[in-house]
Amino acid sequence: MLQRAMLRLLLLLTILLTPLAALAAERPAKELFGAQPLPAALAPQPIGFYSKGCMAGGMQLTPDGPYWQAMRLSRNRQWGLPILVDFLQKLAQDAATQDGWPGLLVGDMAQPRGGPMLTGHASHQSGLDADIWLNPMPARRYTEQQREDISAVAMTEPGPHEIYEDRWTPAHGRVIRRAALDPRVERIFVAPGIKKKLCETAGNDRDWLNKVRPYYGHNYHFHVRLSCPKGSPCKAQSAPPPGDGCGADLAYWFSAEPYKPAPEPAKPPRQMMMSELPPMCRTVLEADPVPGAMTMREAFALKVGLGGGTPANSGLAFVQTSEPAPSFPDIEVARLPRPRPEGF
Asked: What's the CATH number where 213 sits?
């Protein structure tokens, strides 16, 4: 009994004397970053890789703008580096005024301090990734509840990923092209069927297609990834293969190879620990929050107020409505093995 008591006392002393930072190093990084509601009050910079990093000095995309609405506010994931927020605002305005796309519905960007997410994405960690829904923004403003409930619209079938011709419009192609033409963009991920459609309709204007890469799970949205800013502690992604990507590398996605059933059930992905992230991420995690920063839901409540109103600088009337949220068919994506083909 005395020996057990001594062991317990020794364990307690070890815990009390171990620095908190050392204990944090042994916890899953997603738990630590997912618990941070506000950004770090540090100079803005991306740290590490898109799927193994974090973000200092995150900036919020306001829930409402003249040509965008943020979706799924409860996730608090519409944060990014200033360069990403600027990109989205510019894309939203240019696509609406020049391409006939009425506005962006913006899904997940990053958590307030980036890092691994509690659920969902493997990337979106360094403040340079954003998901843009393939639904055009409606003329009315969604309520907070509608932003939680409304479904993104699938543009392709599961499996071979052929496009739904009755849902696709030329404006979809124009907004994706507009995004790809921005020199800050590194990659755009889309469903294979969307890439195929873009290849078929691009005509002789094809250079921008090189950035548009087919991959699993992007039939409801397109995923924009910005390049690492020069001089930042950000790990760049290798360049895609030369050419427009409409040849053999696209044909791969329409073969049986990507959709072969796994030989055995996939094991749960291993959780990334704090000790595996760049050391600077610990500084980000421990930094004070930006003074006056608000979560997405708090910002939305402040903008529209309890009785409705007009979002600041929106140029659009905010209309409270009892109209039910539109419903779109949910198309289940088959659970498939996910290899990483060359040029991802």
From this structure: 3.30.1380.10
What mean pLDDT, rounded, does the chain reach? 83
CB 165 within 8 A of CB 193: no
Ramachandran bin of 66, using left for φ above 0, alpha for ψ from -120 to 50, beta for the remaining angles: alpha
Does residue 335 sit within a domain? no
Task: Let me know: does 337 contact 260? Beta carbons within 8 Å.
Answer: yes
Strand partners for 131:
223
Residue among 100, 104, 224, 219 nearest 163 (CA): 219
Give CA–CA dist 118/4, Å, rounded: 37
Q: What confidence score (pLDDT) does residue 270 get?
A: 80
Nearest of 156, 154, 211 to residue 185 by alpha carbon: 211
* Position 344 in a domain: no
- In angstroms, the CA 110 to CA 117 distance is 8
- pLDDT bin (cut points 50, 70, 90) of residue 265 is confident
Specify the DSSP class assigned to residue 234. B
Numbers of helices and strands, H then E, in the chain: 10, 11
Euclidean distance between CA atoms 114 and 43, whole angstroms: 14
Residues 122-149 pLDDT 10s = 899 999 999 999 999 999 999 999 999 9
